Every structure is written in C-alpha cells, then in structure tokens.
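#data-curation
PF: Archiving a pair of folding outputs for the training set. Convention for this channel: one message per protein, sequence first, structure tokens after, nothing in between. First:
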Amino acid sequence: MAQISVTINGRAFRMACDDGEEERLIGLAKRFDGCIEDLRRSFGEIGDQRLTVMAGIMVVDELTELEKRIRVLEQEVASARDARMAALEHLNRSEASVVARIDEAARRIEQLADGLTRSLRED
C-alpha cells in the first residue's frame, strides 16, 4: 500500500492508496482543492470547515447531475439498440420477401420457357 501526501485547503494530509494509484489520488485532491479555492474566491474567508463542506456538497451535486446524464444516455443507447434490432428484423423480413418473389418469378420464367419449348417442338 502506497503512502502519499496531498494538500487541501492549505493543509497537508497523509493518505494511503493502492500501489499505482498515487497520481490519480493526487489529481483528485488537487481538483477538490480547486473547488475549495473557487469557493474562497466567491465567498471570501468563511471558515475552513464551511468551505470544505460547501466544496463537498458542490462535488456531490455535480456527481448527481452527471449520474442523471449517464442514465439518460444509457436509456438513449438502449432505445437506439432496440431501434437497430427492429430495423435489422425488418430488413431480414424484406430480404426474405424479395427472395421469395425472385424465386416465384424464376419459377414462372421456367414455366414459360418450358411452355415455349413444348410449343416449338409441336410445330
């Protein structure tokens, strides 16, 4: 297990993470620290704890909105998949119908050819 140090709101925190996850955790901490810094610029010094709570709520709000968007996109993908399957089924039915019509036309042509051949033999 790796140990790293991150700085959030001017304070260093020692954290543990899985080996290989160090850069990811450092990046997440920097992003969260950026949220706190944005709030500090907007609201001034309103207390470290309050800024941290507000940043946490802001991040969770963003996460919630992204989760909603993901659900909508998943529904759109499912609808598109269903429409694709319906179109493929329709295509398969259409192809089968065309094949049946071609077979019927070929059968009729063969019948006509046989009839013509017979009538030429009879003459």
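PF: Second:
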Amino acid sequence: MRWLKFVVVIFLCLFGIYSVTMNFVDESKSFTHESEVAYPVDKVFQQFENLQDFSSWNDYFSGKSGLSYTYFQPYEGTGSAMKFSDKNHEEFGDLFIRYSNKNRTIRYQLFEADDDNPYLIDVRFIPKGNKTKLLWNIHTPKRSYLERSLNLVAEDLFVENIDKSMKNLYQILGNKVDKDQKLASIKYDSIMVENRPGELLLGVNVSTKNTKDVLFKNVLLNHSKVLNFVRADLGKKDDEFGIPVLITNPANLKDKELSYFYGVPLSKRVAVSDNNFNFKPVNESRVYYIYYQGNYNGRVKNIQELLKRTKKDTLRNGLLMEEFLEEPAGDKDVKLKLSLPVFR
C-alpha cells in the first residue's frame, strides 16, 4: 500500500512539473529554415506544385513505407490536393496547395489524422542563376495542453525532414535533367525502325468511351492509379520501374468503346494482392516508331502514318504501344513514342 501511495505521489509531482513547464510552451510554434538546390527555379518549382512529384521525394511521405495516395484535380498548382494513408489507417491525412505563384511562392496546408488544425507551410523560391534558394516558413497547429511538448521537438523534426528531402530532390532533378536533354534531341514526326527488347509490364486492363473529352481523362486516371500502386503499395522508387506505356489495338481507334492496357515495366514479377492489377509480358520485336508532341487526340494522324508504312512494306502489325515520355497532365501537351511491332 505504501508503494502505491509513493507511486501516486511521484506521478502527481511529475504531472505538476509537466503542467508548470507547459505554461511556458506556446500552443503553436512558428519557425523558418533555409535550403538550396543546385538547379534553376523553373525546374525546382515544378516539383513543388505537382503533388504526385512532391510526395515522391519529400521525406515526410517517401520516408514512410506502406502509404497509399489519392490525388485530386487540378493535380498541380492552387486547388490541388491529395490524401494519404497506410493500410491500417493508423497514419493518414490530407495535403492541400492553397496558393501558388509560379516560381515565387507556394503555400501548403497539411492535416494529420483527424486534427482540424493544419500545419501551414510557406515556401519562397529565390532564383540564383542555376541554383534556387528556398525559404521555408512553418507554423505548427494549435495543440492541447497535454500535447504541447510536441512543439519542443517540432522544429528539429521538420529541419531533418527538409534536409533529407532536398537530397532526394537533387537526385531526382539530376535524372530529370538527363532525360530532358535526351527529349530535346528527339526528332518528331519521322518514322524510324528499331529492335525493341521484351519487357514485363504491371498495370490494369481498361475499357472506356472513345471520345475526345473522355478518353484522355480516363488515361490520366489510370496513370495515377498505376503509379500510386507501384510507388505506394509496392514501395518502388522512380528508378525501379520504366516509362508508362499504353497498349491497344490500332484497328479499334475509331470505335465508340476502346479497350487498352496501361502499365509500367518492372524488372521481375512481384506478389500483387490487388486483383485489379495484372502482369502483361511484351515480346521482343522489330518495330516502326515515331515521336509525337501535341494534344493527345492529335496522335491518331501519326498512328495512321505508321499503319500506312506497314501496309506499304507489305508487313503485318501487332498491338500499338504508346509510351509517355513525360508525366501526362490535363492541361499540357503530351510527348509520346508510338511503336508498332511489324512482322512478315
């Protein structure tokens, strides 16, 4: 009994000390942090205003395993949003872009779990030639009396997260710059020939209305669905899977309904628990291919050129492959590599 009284007295003393200490801790906290990325501001800002890109390198998300994501239109800039959650719904929340001024400033609101009070995160972009200086201003949510101790470590945690994120971003931009240089050297609208290696795709089978307003929106939806699954559910980094590809029968491009497969190349089969996703092997083949840039619906003219060339050379063709060389978005032109397997 004495021990019980002793434990109670100790607990009350510790709680009293904690209560007194918390009187000197603000219910919310604001702090700033400065960082720098060795790339121009136009390339850096793109990674911040597109939440699909942002969640792939920001350590707050990429440093956690098992998170899945849902993104909402307009997908980038002011008004875009995303939800994130682990499988057991023990860690979840929402991220919003409330304000975006191109290459200058961006404001996020981050809600954790069911908390109605968000983190406010303002980032200012300062161009410095081929480098970009970032000024982070972070305001933590108001916390209850018993939770205020979290404010004592909030700044250290955020600074650590930002520093790790900047390293991830630098690596991603390095890969992106190499890719941009290759894209810049592409010759469009000319039919070429190559031997295409075989590969293994993981993706979804889709059937949708084949109209200008519906088709591309459906492609964007399934693009997000496949990449979210590969990144979040399978835990794959961007360098662990290949360029997204859409496979369809070119003979059906004028039908009212269009069926296609949308997937990304993986190096080997992995266990997949979601029945909506399946593997599709693509055999090695000789292909006619052409690069296209413009509105997605305008690609049909180039596809017809491939079919005409095949017919002229008295060859048969396989299924059409459309590779998205850049991330497709609703308000941007697409860059595609259109490939048509040919054989006698």
